[in-house]
Amino acid sequence: MHTDRRTLLHTLALIGLVCCAAWASSGAWAQTRFNSSGTAFFVSADGLLMTSNHVVKDKEKIVILMDGRLHNAKIVKQDSENDLAVLKIEKSPVPFLRFSRSENVPVGLEVFTIGYPQLNVQGMGQKFTMGLINSDTGMRGSKRHFQFSAQIQRGNSGGPLLAPDGLVVGVVESKLGTTNAPSTDPKATVDLPQNVNYALKSSFAVDLLRDLATVPEPQSVNPRGDKRPFEVFRDARYAVVPVLTVSSTSPASAAETVAPE
Questions:
Q1: pLDDT above 50 (res 143)
Q2: Does the active-site annotation cover 54?
Q3: Catalytic annotation, pick one of 36, 44, 46, 54
Q4: What is the model's pLDDT at position 44?
Q5: Overall number of domains in the chain
Q6: Would residue 83 show up in a list of annotated catalytic residues for this protein?
Q7: Which CATH number goes with the domain that contains 123?
């Protein structure tokens, strides 16, 4: 999961220059550094977005790249316990995704992710993956998470976990890597985790958004949703955007992707 720092810095600098040129010719923005990235998705037509809190926590500046332009984003709500954050940009109307509550999401359900992993390696294009809900519990039996098998990498955090009907059933949070795999026996043979990923269940996101009047009520997921994978992607893609966190004062050594571990 480690990335060559020189390559990362070079790529982020290029992203910064291209985005700034597309968005504005301000001298201040020309000096901006992009220090890390993640994924977010719109949850209402008036510019509210959901992402993981660890993507934006303690960042000096947060921007969303949409339609070739940068949009300043502000944090509206944070839930550090459940690693969620709600952002807002001044743009409307925007395409958005609807939530399902997670009580009726069955193990074995096909699920999909859309995100922006490893910008320095994979570029700025969206990446769409599919897999299954493998368990209705997460690491160490956490009842707040799903385990799923759709592939994710650093930068996917904050993206939607989608059901076959296009509803959001979870928020992508992390993956089990070689450095965070739990072990109870230090002498045991190493068994490296394979595609073990976690998403916070959508019910926690729905609860966080409850008092925001412009967010639609959650719907019931249809496990027999008949959309084909390309249709799920087609209908959801424009609501999913990259989050770039920036700082005009941080040294270049701070540049590093944060999500997921």
A1: yes
A2: yes
A3: 54
A4: 96
A5: 1
A6: yes
A7: 2.40.10.10
